[in-house]
Amino acid sequence: MSLRFARPRAAPAFAASPRRLLAALLFLLLPALASPAFADGPFEPLTIVSRSGRHTFQVEVMRDDAGRAQGLMFRRAMAPDRGMLFDFERNAPVAMWMKNTYLPLDMLFIRPNGTVARIAADTEPLSTRTIDSGEPVLGVLELNAGTAARLGLHPGDKVEHPLFRGR
């Protein structure tokens, strides 16, 4: 039995092209970039009316179990004028946590009439400690940590969003 050794072949011409390598890499990364860890939007306007004035944000609204479970998990940044609103669909006590959430957040627990019931300020990233609403609420608004203090937000302030209209 004889062994034959193949000659090494030259690499295809496209392998050396940085432009093609970059295009292939982007093609492979696009699904990951579209995942909830990187995605944000679509946004809806939300305004908080407080003693210090009207404060407008653009928020993502989580209206189903999957969205509420994902929340802001795995995200590394959020613009100062952005937030996430959780619609719990009914007035009930809720508990949140920060598992897999890298951003420190302020959580505003909101009654069905749009008034803020409680503010949990500067929550601890990656913590599994539960953060209770303290009373039945319809929604929770998550903002970057420090926003509530910077804007002078307090329980009793009013949140204006279609979720809280007519309730």
Automatic annotation (TrEMBL):
The keyword Ligase does not apply. The keyword Ribonucleoprotein does not apply. It comes from the Bacteria. Residues 1-39 form the signal peptide. Gene3D superfamilies: Protein of unknown function DUF192. InterPro entries: DUF192, Saro_0823-like_sf. Keywords: Signal. This is DUF192 domain-containing protein. It comes from Methylobacterium platani. The lineage of its organism: Bacteria, Pseudomonadati, Pseudomonadota, Alphaproteobacteria, Hyphomicrobiales.
